Task: structure prediction
Amino acid sequence: MEEELSEADLFYYGTICHKPADDPAIGRQPQNHGGEIMAFWTPWRGCHRQSEGCRYCYIHKGNARRGVDTDKIVRSERFNAPLEKKANDEWKMKSGQIVYVCFTSDFFVEDADPWRAEAWQIIRQRPDLHFLFLTKRIERFSIGLPDDWGAGYPNVTIGCTVENQRRADERLALFASLPIVHKNIICQPMLEAIDLEKWLDDESIELVVAGGESDRCARPLDYAWILDLRAQCERHHKHFEFRQCGTHFIKDGRLYTLPVKELTRQARKAAINL
Result:
C-alpha cells in the first residue's frame, strides 16, 4: 500500500550527523564554500536517451511541455560564457567558482563532437574555475581529448552516472582506467541495489552521489539501497551524498509517495552524508 507523506515525516534532524565534504571540487551543489552560487555553462543543448536511467528524464519532460525537441542538439548562443567579462573587465564567472557543464545535455554526446575541442580550449583558458560534468557516455571520453590532457586537467571533475549494476559494471571498469584527476560516481536515479566495492579503492574517486527518480511513474527507491551504498563508501573512506529521495520511496518496508518539494528536503533530513 502506498502512503502520502505525513506530518511525521520520514526522517528527523539530528538522528545521524556527519560533517559534509569540504573540498570545493566535489562539494555540495548549488553553492561553493563562502556562499558563492555555482555557475552553469551550457555550450550546447539537447540530449538523446542513453540507458535505463533516462526513461523519465526531467530535461526531456520539461522540453516537451515547451514544445522543444530534446533530441535536436544545438550549439548555445553563449558557448563562450566562461570567457565573458563585465564592463570593468572582470570575469562574469568569478575565480574559484564551480561551473556545472552541460546541465541539459551530456558533454560527450555524439552530436557535439565538432564543438568539443573548442569547449576543452575554453576550460584550459580558465584554470581558476573548476568545471564539473556528469556523463552516461564515458566510453566516448577519449574522442577529441586535448593533446595536453596528460593525467588530466586539475580543474575538471567528471562524474560517471550508473543507475543499476549492469551499467556500473560496464562503465566503471572503463572509468577506472581513464586519466582523470577528480572522479565522482553518480547513482541517480538509483534503480536497484548497486555494489561499488571493487571500484572504491581508486584514489581518484572522491564522491559517490545517490538519489531517486522524480516522476509520477518513477521506479521506487529503497532506502536500504542508500544505506548499503553509504556503508560501502564508509568502508573505503569515500565521501557520500544522499542527494534526493524518489517520488516513490520505500523505507522500513513501507512505500511512500513524496511531492517534488520533499525529495531533497527529506534526503537532507536523513543526515547520512559522509
